[in-house]
Amino acid sequence: MGAGGNTLRSRFARAALALLAATCLLTVAAAPDDAAAKQPFGSRLLKTGSKGTDVRALQRALTALGIPTGADGVFGPTTRKNVKKLERRQGWPVDGKVTRKDAQRITKLAAKRRKQPKPVGTYFVSGLVWAVADVTASKAGTARVDVISDTAGPVRSFSLAFSGPGTQQVSWDGWTTSAAVPDGIYRFKVADAGGTGAQISGGVTGPFDMRNRAFPVPGPHSFGGAGSRFGAPRAGHIHQGQDVAAACGLKLVAPELSQVTTTAYQASGAGYYLVLHGIISGTDYVFMHMKKPSWAPFGTEIRAGQGIGKVGSTGSSTGCHLHFERWSAPGWYRGGSAYDPLPELTYWDSYS
Known about the structure:
By secondary structure, the chain is of the alpha+beta class.
């Protein structure tokens, strides 16, 4: 796009921000429980529309069982879909509901899963840091090292040629040969030593987490109260993001492999803000009220978990926080639409 197109898009974005973010306020008081119900998991039937701490327990159990689910305490369409996924996997009747008997079975399954060896670290698909294993051979030859999924078996293989005794490294960024792997637990394994006597001798020697997204505020934070939520009333519009309260100066990171599409300042609303376009997902991430401009100019490629700025209170803001927006493909004011980021945030936060 030429300079004229960029200028036009910039003007449009500023005008839209003035309308949508001018009165973005931070509410840091503790959020009241939307479902006043605080029943233990298994004390009632759970279905679409249920809310409470028992729903949150269900969502955390689903995540522990390898079905990533945001723990927001609301039994919505995503939770129902994931319950059905578990039912199909276990050979249970598929209805998307959780009876008391189902809750007992889910609790036992999750407890068994949690007793398995703890992952030694968390890595992100196309992240700033890759999972690395040292492979040591005692003889010349060719060895094969597989990346093994906890639920799906081998997902990637590496061939290592040794001219004699020595050590080589295998590094993995969360991709098969053609696609990003789903969230899960993985490990390196010498699948064929090829007469070399090869063994995993260092680096990531045990199971590890591989995740598709990083939580954007890797430090102490809260999600505030009702006024911080997506859809909260504002003067003439609604809040289009989720506020994450955190100390000014706390590091902000990119959730996925992304490209910077907008970096600007708006005194009457967003302050210093940044828009990242997810290269893998095709969706957008918007960071507002940053302490100062991001170091990354337009077009920069950013890896998952890489720092992109700091929490601030610039623009129309009453306290240090990140105003975080999520936009569906093709992106922010490019045909996409804003949606509630809290379910994703609570899920990403669960393993941060």
